[in-house]
Amino acid sequence: MKPDNYERNHALAAEYVVGTLQGAARRRFERWMMVSARVRRQVWYWERRLQPFNESLPEEVAPRAVWNSIEQRLFPATAPVAARW
Amino acid sequence: MAKADDGLVRALARIAQGDRQAFAGFYQKTHRAVFGMCLHLLRDRDEACDVLQETYIQVWHHAGEYHCDRGSVQTWMMSIGRYRCLDALRRRRHEADYDSVSDRQESNTLGPMDNVGNLLDRQRLNHCLKDLDERYRSSIEMAYFRGFTHQELAVAMGEPLGTTKSWIRRGLDVLRRCLDT
Predict the structure, then answer these.
(1) Domains along chain B with CATH numbers
(2) How far apart are CA B106 and CA B115, in angstroms?
(3) Residue of B32, B147, B148 with shortest CB distance to A59
(4) CB-closest option in B20, B57, B79 to A81
(5) What digits encode the pLDDT tens for the residues B47-68?
């Protein structure tokens, strides 16, 4: 991967968000994101642009047990806070 | 900043300070969209529950890292969930089904968590997708909505691996040029 190749990094950022960048290439790209603010911004660009895809999916209420598990993991020794369903 | 997101940003700021009540409210307000996406990508309820749990554990620990350059709070949340779903798919090397992407809502109205900015983004993406070559659009959508690998795309579309790879690459390039105009 050429660190200074803006267009190439944009293409990689797009495939990272879409999910087709995989395996060793995905891990290399994640390391590159950690050191390059510009690459991170390119990923955020695609996340923002493709967010309407996520919004087009049907929403669904999760089983209450998921919230209970989250609370138990984060706050094991304290009283639960009820999420207001 | 749009009003709908403003409340979520305030909630995140309180979560970053350890406010459990704010966290519970935030979960209640946002989890349906994340869970719906997880169910759609993973097609396995138990796994979707696990990923949802991991997503909100991450939100609790990293709420203070959100900033508006990352997009709306929803975008940030959904991205956390999405990458966890992709990880889960890769781990199980999922049995891909090749249904068409049919249960999406082509909505042009505001939903409960939407703001006008979301609506404009949606209209722009829909507009650019309509102009995109059908093969490019299908391959991008199958990868995005099903988490298909290049290899799975090739099988699903009955094309050589190199062909579907280049459709995705070329399609995203054309899409970006349209989105930027």
Answers:
(1) 1-95 (1.10.1740.10), 117-181 (1.10.10.10)
(2) 16
(3) B32
(4) B20
(5) 999 999 999 999 999 999 999 8
| A44, A84, A85 member nearest B70 (Cβ) | A44
Dist. CA B70–CA B76, nearest whole Å? 6
pLDDT tens profile B89-136: 988 764 545 454 444 555 555 554 555 667 788 889 999 999 999 999
CB contact under 8 A, B69 and A44: yes
B78/A51 Cβ within 8 A:
yes
Q: Is B177 exposed, middle or buried (0-12, 13-18, 19+ CB in 10 A)?
A: exposed
Model-level pTM? 0.86
d(CA B148, CA B128): 22
CB contact under 8 A, A15 and B168: yes
State whether residue B70 sits within 8 Å of chain A by CB: yes
